[in-house]
Amino acid sequence: MSDAPARPPLAPETLAMPGAIYSPFADRMADHPGPLFPLHVGDTWRDPFVGARSEDIASADHPRLHAYGDTRGLPELIEAIAGKLARRNGLDHATDEILVTAGATGGLAAAAGATLSPGDEILILAPFWPLIRGIAQSFRATPVEVPFFDRVANAREAVEAVASRITARSRVLYVSTPSNPTGRVIPGETLEALAALARRHDLWIFSDEVYEDYHYEGGPEAHVSMARFAPERTVSVYSFSKSYAMAGQRVGYLAAPAELIHNARKIGTHVYYHAPIIAQRTALAALEGGADWLARAHAQDREVGRRVAARLGEAEPQGGTFLFLDVGDRLDERGLPGLLEDCFAEGVLVAPGSSCGADYGEWIRLSFTAAPGADVLEAADRLAKVLGRR
User: Fold this and answer.
1) What span, in angstroms and rounded, lies between the C-alpha atoms of 207 and 173?
2) Which of 83, 126, 329, 354 is 20–30 Å from 21 (CA)?
3) Beta-carbon neighbour count of residue 164 at 10 Å?
């Protein structure tokens, strides 16, 4: 028996949070004998365009590039974001209503810290981006999952689904469109109905729009921002990670009423201080010169998504970079872990659907942008073999 003194306990809420979110096989990748197709994380295989990479930003051109900066974000980047929001999203935001954040993840965490108290509830349309559940738990709030994207066909049903989960502790409604993981787009009339519901129940709305530039049906200009319908209570969340292949740069931004931004800034300052200055410079370069690169990426990703969906017998994604597959008919006594093992044996890593909601333990998520198109199509063939969809 060890005589070492016992350690003090860790927070039970943190102990209850999941660790390996996207794949239980990530630590076995190095020992896999054949080719690997890691489609479990929603990244892109591309690099940013030349001019918007870290190596393109020089200290000679930007004094104090490696020093601390304004915790709200570079003033010139905030000005550019305000112009983009007006031009692209139809949203009129003053500069004090914008906060540059350490990715959309940092932005949502800052928004959660500004709005949620321990025991408060955040309603999350499911299946959902896996990290939003843990963000709520990090602030000791309760995530309430609302089965939605595979259950709701119109605005009336959408309102009924959300209303059925509202309680006296409800504080926030989290909406994502285009959706990670389903690839579905929520129509404008449904967003408007949900905004009216949030107003009736005095809820904040977190509108996750990080895939706005990968809206396929009607093109990016067809994307509808929730804040058009309830600007006084909507926190619009955006990211350079998805739009411009800058996931490692960690730059996103919030647009919301000034009081919320002021308080979200407090959280960001105490958690990550501010987004990296070099990364903010690359984000500004992307806004100023990335239109042609973005249009090409959009066209390529839409085509790959269409072809992968066809090979797997799924509907073409309406937006985003994911497919979400019901694989319940292929599960044996091993359950989903067994199927994931079979996929891994074929060299394909996919994320378990349970990461995206408790009701989705018989689903899997794959990203069709995580590798070059030819590789993703080969992975789709291998996955089709495992799923019996040839």
Assistant:
1) 8
2) 329
3) 9
* Cis peptide upstream of residue 178 (ω within 30 degrees of 0): yes
Give residue for tokens 């709030």: 141
Contact 346, 386 (CB under 8 A): yes
pLDDT at 377: 97
Instruction: State the Cα–Cα distance between residues 154 and 187, nearest whole angstrom.
Output: 9
CA dihedral 126, 128, 130, 133 (to 10 degrees): -60
Q: Which two tokens stand for residue 96?
A: 């004090």
Helices (H), the chain: 12-15, 75-84, 103-115, 130-138, 155-163, 188-200, 240-243, 258-271, 277-289, 291-311, 335-345, 373-387
- Rounded to whole angstroms, how far apart are CA atoms 133 and 136? 5
The tokens describing 206, both together, are: 């977190």
Structural domains in the chain, sorted by start: 12-47+292-387 (3.90.1150.10), 60-289 (3.40.640.10)
- DSSP per position, 180-237: TTT-----HHHHHHHHHHHHHTT-EEEEE-TTGGGB-TT-GGG---GGGT-TTTEEEE
Supply the pLDDT for residue 1: 54
Rounded Cα distance between 236 and 258, Å, is 13
CA distance 208 to 214: 13
